[in-house]
Amino acid sequence: MGGLVEELGLKLIEFAIYLCRIAWKRLTIFGTGTWDQVDAIVTDEPSLVGNLVTTVEVPYSYRIKGEPYTGLHEEPVLLNDSATKNDSRKTDISSFA
Fold it and tell me: d(Cα 54, Cα 29) in Å, to the nearest integer?
């Protein structure tokens, strides 16, 4: 019984952290509506990182007025089984802000 309660507690904590990260992400992009939009190029395979809450990291590069810039987009994801955590291609990264 104790193991089930501990596992449920960890899942609730994981979900709460996930919700906080999503909320923070949405708050940080709230004022970016007036920024210029550019086309970016994904420079490497997306990777999954993290222990308690998994995050997809997508490295990219872009140019503004000829100047090169690079970035790393991070998006928190909820994954149910450890096999899915090892396959970043199963995570939808086709659109992000």
Answer: 20
pTM: 0.52
- 89 CB burial (10 A radius; 0-12, 13-18, 19+): exposed
Q: Which amino acid is at 79?
A: L
Residue pLDDT, tens place only, 58-96? 999 999 888 999 998 888 887 654 434 445 444 444 554
* C-alpha span between 37 and 66 (Å, rounded): 14
Q: What is the largest CA-CA distance in the chain?
A: 61
Contact in structure between 96 and 75 (CB atoms under 8 Å): yes
CB contact at 8 A, 57 and 42: no
Mean pLDDT on 18-47:
79
DSSP secondary structure letter of residue 65: T
